[in-house]
Amino acid sequence: MHKASPRWTDCTCFHRRGRRWEDVLEENGMRLRTRLALAFALLALVPLAVVVPPTLTRLRDTLSRELDARMEAATASAQESLERSSATARRAVEELVDSTSMEDLAREARDRPTRAIQAGTAEALMKSRGLSVLALFDREGRVLSSGHLPARRGDPDPALFAVTQQKSPRPVPVRVEVRTASGLRQLPALVTARPVDFGDLRLWAVGGVLLDESLAQHLARLTQTQVTLLAGDTPLASAGTAEPPTVTKALPLGDAATVRLVFSRAAAREAEQGVMRAFLLLAALGGTFAVLLGLLVSRWMTRPVEALTEGARRVAEGALESQVTVKASGEVGELVRTFNRMTSELKATTERLMASERIAAWQEVARRLAHEIKNPLTPIRMSLETLQAAQEAKHPRFQDMFKESAGVVLEEVDRLRRIVDEFSHFARMPKPQLAPVDLGELAQSVLALYATPPTGIQILPTLQTGVVARVDRDQLTQVLVNLVKNAEEAMASTGGTLRVRVRSTEADAIVEVEDSGPGIPLEHRARIFEPYFTTKDGGTGLGLAIASRILQEHGGKLEVGGEPGHGARFSLVLPRAA
Ligand code: ADP
């Protein structure tokens, strides 16, 4: 009867690589939910990811084109404004040389060269014509009078006089030396030269406009930019502001000066960032919404899986016919139907299996019992036949023989009774009444029966308390008594040590009974749990069979160990209770 009756938690078909299948299902439910949530989030974010980069590029293009157009327009209007200043200066100089006052001045200069042209002459003419540069030169390039630098009178000014060599009537940019509040400075100006002839006298009038602060201010107002006038790298005048980031455009005026226009890109950047922020907000909102939706949908989808998980757990706990009632379609629906079919068959199959196992086990027991009963019958029969023969032959020692034979018969009948008693005990074994029991205390109470062990035998207990299992106290006591009795019998002739240990692992509660007797030969190990296997005179061979069966009924097992020749160890392994 040591063969295990089937228990469904042991069945390998419910395991997948060592994991319980309900755990696998539950894990799958979890994974499906995460996957769906992620898929939805992806679904929401992918279109955004596809749309955002080209939109941003397009926006950037548009903004940059707009800036280009603005820069072009501003540059054009700045150029136009410079052109206008140039034209105004040209007209003013032309009108001046054609004027009667200039003719008068020339005539007087011919008649009375020393007096006609004085230091203040050019300044008066310059102001009257709205010019900011005017110098009158003689034929050789000596300054006769200077409006913008009166102190130059009598000296040459080759830089300014060089303008007289220009073929074009248009003003040209040159650097002119002027006196300002901060001393003498070189300032850029648009200047043109015209000859004034009277008879054989020739004068040169060289005039124009300075490019200074007021021009910068005018251009800044006109173009809505920051304008800087530069002579080489030196800034001369600046007006207007431009918020960074900026783009710069330079407008060269010959070698004399550069007009630098600084455009602000702040507005464009603001627009770009605004769009980016809007997209990010959209992505965050869309993503959150999609994840929530995904979770909701997956909850709805994983319900059948969870119901299956619950069903599987119930089956594992022993409710073999438990059914899953959840509406599901497709593969999951098929799975639910299969599960229900399987569990409804499960109980019947289990019962059939257990019944056939029981029958097989009992047949084996009956076969052995018959054998056991047959053994005493032979000596009984022989004794009776001997007596019969002796009586017929009127044997003189019949009286003695009768006494002897009666002894044998009585002894064998006693043995028969013992066999029948043990068998009926074995057959009647009641179902265990389970309750939490501290195995340390139980072992203690069993060992108390052996307070004075047989001579030569020492008992060494190591009993951990708090190791609890759900067991039938009486049946487990019977097992322990039996194991201790076997150990004592094994050490009866030699003496030795009996160790009793109670310990636990994470899942199991364990009681070990170990002796230092002869141990169990390997060839006997497979058989000692069989009913009627014994190596002792007068043994029944039922003790270990009963013990093993009790442990099986508790969901545990009885294991045999120890090295042959050095002792035997029996371990009771039981599921540990919380
Ligand atoms: P019985 O004690 O009536 O023989 P058991 O079923 O208790 O029946 O034991 C079966 C056999 O197992 C014993 O006859 C013996 O050969 C062997 N056995 C049991 N316990 C021990 C032990 N502690 N040391 C050595 N052999 C043992």
TrEMBL record:
Extent of the signal sequence: none
UniProt keyword terms in alphabetical order: ATP-binding, Cell membrane, Hydrolase, Kinase, Magnesium, Manganese, Membrane, Nucleotide-binding, Phosphoprotein, Protein phosphatase, Stress response, Transferase, Transmembrane, Transmembrane helix, Two-component regulatory system, Virulence
Domain (HAMP) ranges: 299-351
GO molecular function: ATP binding; phosphoprotein phosphatase activity; phosphorelay sensor kinase activity
All copies of domain Histidine kinase, residue ranges: 368-578
Subcellular location per the Swiss-Prot or TrEMBL entry: Cell membrane
Obligatory cofactor(s): Mg(2+); Mn(2+)
UniProt EC number: 2.7.13.3
Catalysed reactions listed for this entry: ATP + protein L-histidine = ADP + protein N-phospho-L-histidine
Residue spans crossing the bilayer: 36-56, 279-301
CDD domains, per the entry: HAMP (cd06225), HisKA (cd00082)
Membrane topology category: Multi-pass membrane protein
Domain of life: Bacteria
A Pfam family reported for this protein in Swiss-Prot or TrEMBL: HisKA
Gene Ontology, cellular component aspect: plasma membrane
UniProt cross-references to PANTHER family, sorted A to Z: SENSOR PROTEIN CREC
Name of the protein in its database record: Signal transduction histidine-protein kinase/phosphatase MprB
Organism per entry: Myxococcus xanthus (strain DK1622)
